[in-house]
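in:
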């Protein structure tokens, strides 16, 4: 079994994740393709992830790719997580992840409606009819907020209490349920936000605005194989457990998918990993590089087993739910963390000694991050121990 050491894994990370200086990209869509998808649970992450990997890119370049060129699309996919995906990958994501999520969400929301006993007749048929009417209304409007759609489709204002047994529970209308289901099904998409690039208050648009013919059907196994092949090129070599975690699939489905691919097993410092058979040649180490990556960036969130780049720093950089905060990287490993203070200052702290040359690169990256934010202040969606300390 061939051995691939940590140094080679870090070299691949620097090159293929567009973090090494000489491999940074000139377009947001190119960056998204390199990462397979970009994490988008926190809207600011998308922009900051692109900024860290881009050559002279600014937030307007990301907005152009998303909402003007529409070469990127926001969707729920693996692990019911929000991502920004290149539009050509949407069919594979829809078939391999989102379609099952839509089925699950519809079943859950239908059960809530049935238990609330707020309609007469077949709940599944009623809900399907509301979904169809909502999609048609959005096609007519072109783009709309949830509030605007609930005026156009009165049944979206149907009130349901999903947890009546809870003392704090209260009825809510079904607008968000229907929109989330339609989005997961690939019939509508989150459009331009109302409050700038850190906002999660989106308008909605029909999928036809991005893909005029809708999302093409791709056979399930073909879709899974395409997704894993792209992941292995960007993140491999890696243990099978990392693929299972990233996709959110069960182990049987992961192994069935891997059987379709031409792979080799490799030794990763005593742990067995897999790698594409045509990707065995070593990737030359790039020149030393530094980077400030945002919370939930796709690089640290790409693996479940992170010791080879995280070291002992998890307690300072993760919250209790397993979310990673803003991190400082040098040459393929995490060496510190950072935060934006209320006045816009980028505060940062190293968690290990990196030497004078690395320190100079890190200081330059801190300045780049501050310039990317400009006058924008991003409110964290969660807090990590180090981020709290830096902003206290």
């Amino acid at each position: 079994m061939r051995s691939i050491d940590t140094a080679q894994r870090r070299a691949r990370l620097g090159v293929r994740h567009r973090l090494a200086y000489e491999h940074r990209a000139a377009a947001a869509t190119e960056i998204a393709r390199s990462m397979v998808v970009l994490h988008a649970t926190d809207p600011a992450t998308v922009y900051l992830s692109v900024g860290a990997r881009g050559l002279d890119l600014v937030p307007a370049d990301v907005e152009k790719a998303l909402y003007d060129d529409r070469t990127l699309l926001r969707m729920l996919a693996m692990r019911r997580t929000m991502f920004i995906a290149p539009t050509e990958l949407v069919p594979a994501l829809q078939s391999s992840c989102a379609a099952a999520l839509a089925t699950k969400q519809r079943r859950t929301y239908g059960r809530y409606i049935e238990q609330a006993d707020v309609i007469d007749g077949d709940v599944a048929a009623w809900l399907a009819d509301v979904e169809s009417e909502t999609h048609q209304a959005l096609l007519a409007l072109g783009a709309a907020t949830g509030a605007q759609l609930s005026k156009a489709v009165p049944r979206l204002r149907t009130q349901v209490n999903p947890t009546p047994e809870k003392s704090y529970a209260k009825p809510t209308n079904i607008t968000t349920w229907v929109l989330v289901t339609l989005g997961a099904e690939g019939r509508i998409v989150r459009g331009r936000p109302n409050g700038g690039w850190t906002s999660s208050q989106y308008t909605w648009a029909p999928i036809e605005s991005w893909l005029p013919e809708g999302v093409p059907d791709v056979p399930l196994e073909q879709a899974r194989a395409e997704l894993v092949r792209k992941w292995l090129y960007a993140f491999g070599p890696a243990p099978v457990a990392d693929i299972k975690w990233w996709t959110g699939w069960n182990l049987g489905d992961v192994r069935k998918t891997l059987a379709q691919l031409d792979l080799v097993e490799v030794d990763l410092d005593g742990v067995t990993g897999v790698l594409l058979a045509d990707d065995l040649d070593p990737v030359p180490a790039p020149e030393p590089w530094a980077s400030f990556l945002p919370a939930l960036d796709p690089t640290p969130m790409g693996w479940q087993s992170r010791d080879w780049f995280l070291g002992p720093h998890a307690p300072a950089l993760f919250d209790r739910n397993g979310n990673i905060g803003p991190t400082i990287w040098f040459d393929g490993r995490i060496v510190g963390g950072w935060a934006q203070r209320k006045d816009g200052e980028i505060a940062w702290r190293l968690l290990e000694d990196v030497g004078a040359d690395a320190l100079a690169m890190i200081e330059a990256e801190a300045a780049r991050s501050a310039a990317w934010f400009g006058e924008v202040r991003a409110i964290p969606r969660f807090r990590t121990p180090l981020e709290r300390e830096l902003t206290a």
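note: The chain has 15 helices and 14 strands.
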